[in-house]
Amino acid sequence: MKIGEVAARTGLTAQAIRYYEREGLLPRASRTHTGYRLYGPEALNRLAFIKQARQLGLSLEEIKRVLDMSDSGRAPCCQVRTLLAGKLEHLDRTIAELVTLRDQLRRFLSKIAGMPDQADASDHICRLIQVAAAVPPDAARTRQSR
Asked: What DSSP designation does 37 have?
């Protein structure tokens, strides 16, 4: 199969396939006498694996290590399990940090809701950030109720 057919069958771009080949994730394709790459059916399996691994959050470096293990006859499943568990832990931490940030932003927006915009001649870049951060929440509520 030529690269265009492989691209169509895998849903990857020809550019991505060439990149994976350059980076060693995909063995070098044989070439026609005119220089076109020719791929066998095993390339479809490998590219499907790479695509799915990317969708699960594995980096190309991580995928290459897994492929190298498999190519050398070792089962990489334990390594894959460890990598994916690490990705999940990282994602859980990121989600927790984002929830905390969202809550902080809600509190901050509530705190600055009643504050007026600054005048153009102000020394502050943005009064809402520079001054409101120092205003206790109760003071902001008192201003809002006036």
From this structure: E
Coil/strand/helix, residue 28: coil
- Hey, what amino acid is at 115? M
Q: Which residues of 29-52 are buried (b: 16+ CB within 10 A; e: fewer)?
A: beeeeeeebebeeebeebbeebbe
At 2, give phi and psi (nearest 5°).
Answer: -80, 165
**146: its two tokens:** 């006036």
Number of residues in the chain = 146
Q: pLDDT by residue (tens digit) across 40-95?
A: 999 999 999 999 999 999 999 999 999 999 999 999 999 999 999 999 999 999 99
DSSP letters, 67-86, are: HHHHHTT---HHHHHHHHHH
